[in-house]
Specification:
- The structure is a single chain.
- By secondary structure, the chain is an alpha+beta fold.
- It is globular and about 35 Å long.
Length: about 100
């Protein structure tokens, strides 16, 4: 579980990132979650955007993706989701 200070730090790091994955009208599925697990292991911090044609709530999608990939949900703002998971092999982010 991340503290408020850690979430603030991660939000500041994620500000300049571009979204890597998009969630469309199909919503979340196992295929998407598996790709997120693989990508977040090397990146630690990533943005995911929810497209306008997706009917699901971005907060629910963020919670599903975080639970499925074992990551922490840092922020959901508008249709952008920020996830963090500490990498075992490629650790680059030091949390306060």
């Amino acid at each position: 579980m991340l503290t408020g200070k850690q979430k603030r730090h991660l939000r500041s790091l994620a500000h300049h990132l571009q979204p890597i994955f998009q969630v469309g009208k199909g919503g979340t599925n196992e295929h998407l979650i598996r790709h997120i697990e693989e990508a977040i292991e090397t990146r630690e911090l990533m943005k995911i955007s929810v497209l306008n044609n997706c009917d699901d709530d971005p907060k629910e999608i963020g919670a599903q993706l975080a639970a499925g990939s074992g990551a922490e949900l840092v922020q959901v703002i508008g249709k952008t989701i920020v996830l963090y998971k500490e990498s075992k092999d490629h650790k680059t982010i030091n949390l306060p």
